[in-house]
Design goal:
elongated, mainly alpha
């Protein structure tokens, strides 16, 4: 049991380390963000969702936090909207960029954990929950922190039909959310399911090898004892 636990910990740290590396690579290359004019679509929810499904809520929280920290970093001159909000309040900018992503990773892990069986529906629903939670939590925190500022009011005025807070939230994320939801649901569910299958097969093979080795050792020990008694 001790060796099995150590192996599981090593596997967990390896998977988490790889996902963190992928997340950081995506965050600082064009792979992670699709910018079309003033619209920014992020695909960083994918590694967070995969990690939350494969490694659990704890890993989802860690990956979500790193996602949020990279978003906060973008506010230092790389993202026009984030940079403008940073000039208003650094603490509130940190809050709306980091906390929603942290909570998203945690909640996605808990949602998958709530499923008793790892079915296709479990992977699909959980993968879809990632972008849904990311969008809802992000927009809720953004509005709570900055709704009455000139920056957000100017943004709301530029969106036709955004006459109140609710319509602003819905209309401002329309295309972004649809693209993010489709990509994360398809890619996130497929990757998480494939990794899960690989890990389960690898674990089963390792367990079989260990059990076979233990049986061989026991047999050799018994034979040695018998020889010793005969002498």
């Amino acid at each position: 049991m001790g060796k099995e636990r150590i192996n599981k910990n090593i596997l967990y740290m390896s998977e988490l380390g790889i996902l963190i590396a992928i997340l950081l690579l995506m965050a600082f290359t064009p792979v992670g963000y699709l910018r079309i004019g003033t619209m920014t679509i992020t695909f960083l929810t994918v590694p967070v969702v995969v990690g939350a499904i494969v490694c659990g809520p704890g890993a989802g929280t860690i990956l979500g936090t790193i996602f949020g920290l990279t978003s906060f970093y973008q506010c230092f001159g790389m993202d026009p909207m984030g940079t403008a909000l940073m000039q208003i309040s650094l603490p509130r900018t940190f809050l709306f960029t980091v906390v929603p992503r942290l909570m998203m990773g945690l909640c996605v892990g808990l949602i998958f954990k709530a499923f008793k069986k790892r079915t296709a529906a479990a992977y699909t629903v959980t993968a879809l929950a990632g972008p849904v939670l990311n969008t809802v939590l992000f927009m809720t925190t953004l509005i709570a922190c900055f709704w009455h500022t000139d920056v957000i009011q100017a943004w709301a005025s530029s969106i036709p039909g955004a006459t109140n807070v609710f319509l602003f939230a819905v209309l401002s994320v329309g295309v972004n959310f649809i693209v993010e939801a489709i990509v994360c649901t398809i890619v996130g569910a497929a990757v998480a399911k494939a990794v899960d299958r690989y890990v389960n097969k690898a674990s089963a093979s390792t367990r079989s090898i260990v059990e076979a080795g233990e049986e061989t050792v026991e047999e050799v020990a018994e034979e040695t004892a018998e020889v010793a008694e005969a002498e």
